[in-house]
């Protein structure tokens, strides 16, 4: 039996995890809007976000997966301007999207943000991702209180084979995936479609809000 048709907005839905989420909801007469820089929306541009949601109008479910890059390195080495730019994109971008989307999301709708396992896993040379994702997880819970009855959750992926790593040297990337396969309890790196299943849970479960859903192959167990 098909479900009632819904309208979804996937910010970051043109590639990787967001694209997998968009294709999973592209059925049953649903409407799926995807946006990213390649469709003309940069989440670090507040005015553009406000105008985007004005143009969409009322809708049911918002997903944000935009902004995957952040500088790696020790706190003493990373260029602060680069670190701030990554924060502006993923942290402040996600907050801006939630802020301007909220007035258009229907009362039984939801927001699902994206964090990442480094929010709670202590790994040297990754503090920018740790800080962005930990900050987003904290605000996810605040938003779940402030925006109720709209439900607000976050999905926290572990290593997932997406376009986020397309600029890496091929052998370094293969080594990273192989390392995950050798060390993670599940014996593999993640697929975008596997992470997408967690967004469906957050969106469809009317009893879930303020949750951070870990889909990381067991990385946080180590
Ligand atoms: N892949 C992993 O291993 C992993 C692990 C932990 C957490 N995550 C998180 O999961 C989320 C999705 O990652 P992914 O692997 O799917 O990355 P991805 O394949 O690089 O996709 C990122 C998406 O965000 C869009 N985007 C980037 N910057 C943007 C901006 N300023 N404004 C609007 N859209 C922007 C990109 O499109 P445009 O280039 O067209 O803008 C693209 O659609 C990110 O938040 C990432 O931090 C990923």
Major beta sheet summary: 6 strands, parallel
State the end-to-end distance.
41 Å
Count of separate DSSP helical elements: 6
Q: For the CA atoms, what is the radius of gyration?
A: 17 Å
Overall pLDDT level: 97
Low-confidence parts, pLDDT < 50 over ≥5 residues? none
Number of separate domains = 1
- Based on the structure, what is the oligomeric state of the protein chains? single chain
Give the CATH class: Alpha Beta
- What is the approximate shape? globular
Small molecules bound? NADP nicotinamide-adenine-dinucleotide phosphate
Q: Write out the CATH superfamily name.
A: NAD(P)-binding Rossmann-like Domain
Helix content: 40-55%
Number of strands: 6
Order of helices and strands: EHEHEHEHEHHE
Percentage of residues in DSSP E strands: 15-25%
Give me the CATH fold name.
Rossmann fold
Strand order of the largest sheet: 2-1-3-4-5-6
Q: What is the name of the CATH architecture?
A: 3-Layer(aba) Sandwich
Main structural class: alpha/beta
Structure summarized in a few sentences:
By secondary structure, the chain is of the alpha/beta class. Helix content is 41%, strand content 17%. The protein has a single domain, classed as Rossmann fold, CATH 3.40.50.
Secondary-structure blueprint:
Blueprint: E1 7-11, H1 16-25, E2 31-35, H2 46-56, E3 59-64, H3 80-101, E4 105-114, H4 127-146, E5 151-157, H5 170-183, H6 192-204, E6 212-215
Parallel strand pairs: 1-2, 1-3, 3-4, 4-5, 5-6
Helix pairs in contact: 1-6, 2-3, 3-4
The protein binds NADP nicotinamide-adenine-dinucleotide phosphate.
């Amino acid at each position: 039996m098909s479900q009632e048709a819904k309208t979804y907005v996937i910010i970051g839905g043109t590639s990787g995890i967001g694209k997998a989420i968009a294709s999973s909801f592209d059925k049953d007469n649903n409407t799926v809007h995807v946006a990213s820089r390649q469709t003309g929306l940069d989440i670090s541009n507040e005015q553009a976000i406000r105008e985007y949601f004005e143009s969409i109008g009322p809708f049911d479910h918002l997903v944000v997966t935009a902004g995957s890059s952040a500088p790696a390195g020790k706190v003493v080495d990373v260029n602060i301007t680069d670190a701030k730019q990554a924060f502006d994109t993923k942290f402040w971008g996600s907050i801006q999207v939630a802020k301007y989307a909220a007035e258009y999301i229907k009362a039984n709708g939801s927001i699902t943000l994206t964090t990442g396992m480094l929010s709670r896993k202590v790994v040297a040379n990754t503090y920018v991702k740790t800080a962005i994702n930990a900050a987003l997880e904290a605000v996810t819970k605040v938003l779940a209180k402030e925006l109720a009855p709209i439900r607000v959750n976050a999905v926290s992926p572990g290593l997932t084979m997406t376009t986020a790593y397309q600029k890496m040297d091929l052998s370094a990337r293969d080594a990273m995936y192989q390392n995950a396969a050798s060390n993670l309890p599940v014996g593999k790196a993640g697929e975008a479609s596997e992470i997408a299943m967690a967004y469906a849970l957050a969106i469809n479960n009317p009893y879930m809000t303020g949750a951070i859903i870990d889909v990381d192959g067991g990385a946080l167990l180590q």
